[in-house]
Here is the input.
Amino acid sequence: MFGGIDAALYNPLYLLLMAAVSVFLFVRLSPLGTDRVLDEDKGEWQGLILTIILVLFLGLRPLSGRYFGDMGSYNHMYKMIASGMETEMKGGDILFTGIVYFLARLSLPSWFFFLFMEIIYIVPIFLACRRLSKENQLILIVFAFSAMSFFTYGTNGIRNGAASSLFLLAITYLPRKRPLDKVIFAFLAACSFFMHASMILPIMASLAAYFVRNPKAMFWFWGGSFVVSLFAGGLVSDIFSSWGFEERLSSYVNAGGNVEEHMLKTGFRWDFLLYSSMPVLLGWFVIFKKRIYTRTYALLLGTYMYANAFWIMIIRAPYSNRFAYLSWFLYPIALAYPMLVMPVWKKAPGLIIGTIMLGHMAFSILMWYMTGRY
Here is the structure.
């Protein structure tokens, strides 16, 4: 729909756009020293323009289930409701259900529904990055938009993607002292939960990170999840599967859903684990070697690590990557944030950050190349 572009070209065109932006920023960042990296405004309007481009590009994509996974099912469901037919919608995601019924009963076309959901998915990420770093919001935005799961959860798992973005915005309010900020956090977290109930896990992880102030706790918990996974991983998967508090959370463990065939591999996923460990290793370096961290960073990293630890415990299960997304949506922010707001690198910080950004982008391209569609 976006200029008649073939649906098969959307993923590679998105990657090409983000790769070009990443290279452009790498050139700008490379010569910068610490003061300029942390304090120089990198440009607010560029991030806004990139956000608008991606909202329109992904939101007005063709109605294709072949290239965009669950989009075909959502389109069918939406048209049934718009025609006056009742259809069963799984789970208790009352906010998502309300949006579907509201737009469908207004007789708005299905393309408008997908555009609306893309706005809910992308705009909160933009707002969260602005709140986290005024000077480096553009770089944070590029890290977030170039993450390997960004495209998939904007075009396939749209319900989960929208929910995670609402929570990402919510968590930026939690470290603030004003009572109003706590109210906003609770409201956005509730919206996230009612958009997709699996968000109960990152919500609980954020509360654990907020109340447990000792940063050593999150590293012990994350490291301990390895031991549990190695010696009792099957038992933990069975326990998670038997819990009735959230049907889809269990279905991720039980191999339900529409994901790529290569994700069916079971066993201890060292490849996924290596990917997940990057923000953790950086966090250990920043907190314990450099001895610098902010309350916001401790909250972001702690939420990521607590949620990611639960995935490690059930890592052998098929489709565990869907469970991993309950922490992976925080991955680019947990990785980029400390480098952009704290003096982590004394020598050539711009070059180091730019190189990590290019590596982050290259990994997304590699995953697309290996799988055909991530």
Notes: The mean pLDDT is 86. The chain has 19 helices and no strands. Residues 92 and 365 are 35 Å apart (CA to CA).
